Amino acid sequence: TLQRGAADVTGETSTVSVSKAAEVIAYGWSGYTNWRLTADGTLTFIPTEQTENGQTNLKNYWKVNGVLTLPWSAYADQITSVVVEDGIHDIGQMAFYELPNLKRVTLGADIVEIRNYAFKNCTSLTEINLENVDFIREGAFYGCSSLTDVDYSGAVVIAEWVFSKTGVIFP
């Protein structure tokens, strides 16, 4: 018997069941990345072969007439985890703005920059790895009130208000 994840394969007869966690409920693209959201609340970003100046980046977003529309906005309440795979170099401005249930972010080893207000007001965020990030731009984690312990020691540039209204002690 071979078991892998939620799929079972036994002898000549096979039974395959897809776990709810693996079920893709939405997908699309952002900048030079593809994204998919699975039923367990994980929003994953995968680099494409297209680049801008040799880099693969998540797109920048802006409010237009006071409204921010992200490709995953309709699922904002369902997103609990973000995974940015290796090969992506920066996270765009306001990319994860106000995701109320986002708890954990896993960044690939190639992320070097987090742009302005990328995670602003993600009030449930408690975990993110910043070891490889060189540049953390203005207000990147502003209002992430559950964020208390972050290793940002590798950052070369940390802009103003990055950790404002969080529990992170910043000199």
Task: Describe this entry's structure for a reader.
There is one protein chain. The chain is an all-beta fold and 171 residues long. Helices cover 0% and strands 27% of the residues. It is built from no helices and 13 strands. The chain is globular, with a radius of gyration of 18 Å.
Supply database-style keywords.
171 residues, mainly beta, six-stranded mixed beta sheet, four-stranded parallel beta sheet, globular, disordered N terminus
Distance between the termini: 56 Å
Which blocks of ≥5 consecutive residues have pLDDT under 50? 1-18
Find the structural class using helix and strand composition. mainly beta
Instruction: Enumerate the strands of the largest sheet in spatial order, edge to edge or round the barrel.
Output: 4-5-6-7-9-11
**How much helicity do the residues have?**
under 10%
Listing every helix as H and every strand as E from the N terminus to the C terminus, the arrangement reads EEEEEEEEEEEEE
The number of helices is 0
The global form is globular
Number of strands: 13
Question: Whole-number average pLDDT?
Answer: 86
Percent of sequence in beta strands: 25-35%
